[in-house]
């Protein structure tokens, strides 16, 4: 496995390119994959042809990937959509070949990619799962600045809230729990993971008075997994799961839907949150923010989450090794 962490360009009209030179402050041995024209003028850049090529100290190694058009901060260009997708594909190929230790993906605009390149996936997570052979994956959000850490995994992701009760099947919830269990062992070095499972309904259904999914599906599933030896607890009321004393009793929380998982971590650690894809044959993390078109090119971008994503990818690579 290669030693460097690969940082993708993301949408060149967003803050991804301007964050790349700032990410050198992480101290992580990284390289950037994208069009050098999109980087800030005067950035300390050293173009390379292979991921392991040496560069002068203090310089950003750049693996060149040409785009059709220049970057206009805050104005996504459909002409660059296909190249943005191609960068992700190339990064995945390098990771699958063991030429880089991990990939960190800068933010993309799904709307821009769908409009400009016919991108058929809800986001990075699903696309990378496809590139890896349509493997089952889960999205984990991890805090880096709060103690105890907050790690959350939504069992359903980018779907309307009205569709969640039907999508939250026993199979979907079991897959999320098993991927979380395996990921905590392989990528975080936790030998005996403790997983808490949130209920779907307020008060975890309150004995069936506010919903019956907890009684009919979630509790029996947890009992079956516990009988196998997994340390799983729940279903628990989501409104009391995320303060510090509660987090001390588990290593990750599996939640029923997107906002149930992401609201607590973004409240607790907005700048330090990292997105991790569980289940891939390679390591992928990303900053937990979007393209930020509204501030792109203005020197206002905060590199904290990108730096946290790089450091987490580095730590995960060491854990896998």
What percent of residues are in strands?
A: 15-25%
Radius of gyration: 20 Å
Total individual domains: 2
Count the E strands: 12
**CATH architecture verdict of the largest domain:** 3-Layer(aba) Sandwich
Q: Which strand order does the major sheet show? A: 3-4-2-1-5-12-11-6-7-10-8-9
- Give the low-pLDDT segments: none
> Residue share in helices?
25-40%
| Topology order in helix (H) and strand (E) letters | EHEEEHEHHEEHHEHEHEHEEH
How many individual helices? 10
For the record, the CATH class of the largest domain is Alpha Beta
**Describe the biggest sheet?**
12 strands, mixed
Quickly give the structural class.
alpha/beta
The CATH homologous superfamily name of the largest domain equals: Isopropylmalate Dehydrogenase
CATH T-level fold name of the largest domain: Isopropylmalate Dehydrogenase
What's the shape? globular
Kindly report how far apart the N and C termini lie. 9 Å
Oligomer: single chain
Residue-averaged pLDDT? 95
């Amino acid at each position: 496995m290669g030693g460097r962490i690969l940082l993708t360009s993301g949408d060149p009209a967003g803050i991804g390119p301007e964050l790349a030179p700032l990410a050198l402050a992480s101290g992580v041995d990284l390289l950037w994959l994208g069009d050098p024209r999109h980087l800030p003028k005067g950035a300390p850049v050293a173009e390379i042809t292979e991921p392991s090529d040496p560069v002068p100290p203090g310089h950003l190694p750049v693996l060149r990937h040409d785009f059709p058009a220049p970057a206009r901060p805050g104005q996504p260009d459909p002409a660059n959509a296909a190249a943005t997708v191609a960068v992700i594909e190339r990064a995945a190929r390098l990771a699958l070949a063991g030429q880089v230790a991990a990939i960190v993906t800068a933010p993309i605009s799904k709307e821009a990619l769908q409009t400009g390149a016919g991108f058929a996936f809800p986001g990075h997570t699903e696309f990378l799962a496809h590139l890896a052979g349509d493997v089952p994956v889960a999205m984990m959000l991890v805090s880096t600045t709060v103690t105890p850490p907050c790690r959350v995994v939504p069992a359903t992701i980018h779907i309307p809230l009205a569709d969640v009760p039907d999508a939250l099947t026993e199979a979907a919830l079991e897959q999320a729990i098993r991927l979380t269990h395996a990921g905590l062992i392989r990528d975080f070095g936790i030998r005996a993971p403790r997983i808490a499972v949130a209920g779907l309904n307020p008060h975890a259904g309150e004995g069936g008075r506010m919903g019956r999914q907890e009684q009919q599906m979630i509790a029996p599933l947890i009992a079956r997994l516990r009988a196998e030896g997994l340390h799983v607890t729940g279903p628990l009321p989501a409104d009391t799961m995320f303060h510090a004393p509660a987090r001390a009793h588990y290593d990750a929380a599996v939640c029923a839907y997107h906002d149930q998982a992401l609201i607590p971590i973004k409240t607790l650690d907005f700048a330090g949150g990292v997105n991790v894809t569980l289940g891939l044959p390679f390591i992928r993390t990303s900053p937990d923010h979007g393209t930020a078109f509204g501030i792109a090119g203005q020197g206002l971008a905060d590199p904290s989450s990108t730096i946290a994503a790089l450091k987490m990818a580095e730590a995960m690579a060491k854990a896998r090794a």
